[in-house]
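Per reviewer request, we include the raw input and output of the structure prediction for the construct analysed in the revised manuscript.
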Amino acid sequence: MHFSSRTDIEAPIDFVYAALSDLEAWERAAMRRGADVNRTDKLRAPGVGMGWHVVFRFRGKQREVDIRLTGQEPGAKLAFSGAGRMLEADLSVDLLALSPKRTRMVLHTDVRPLTLAARLFLQSMKLAKGRVQTKLNNRMEQLSTEMESRFAASRPR
């Protein structure tokens, strides 16, 4: 199942890429929301091959996901793959400079079932695709607003 969303951000592409590629900040954000995040790689510097084992509660059950950074084009793209017990997914975030102070962020996800139960779950998601897409679009807008606020706060007056 494929989802995509895009949003425009009132900030330069370098600022947006720096915020998105601050993977330690994303780790801390997940931990603040109750997830247990553990690095699975031995890399000393951030880059392709970084991995995390994430344990979190979703819909009353404990879930485990292994996530890996699979692609990175500085200033342009980040790509991740993830696998759990029932699903595997690929996610990419592409950035495009619309002007010196405006960036378009495009998110693509592709989720694949590994079990029959996951196939049924994805089938029910297809029936509710409109609602799921609306939630994704709203979250992208929230992220856009957060980045715009951070950029405005970082600029000297």
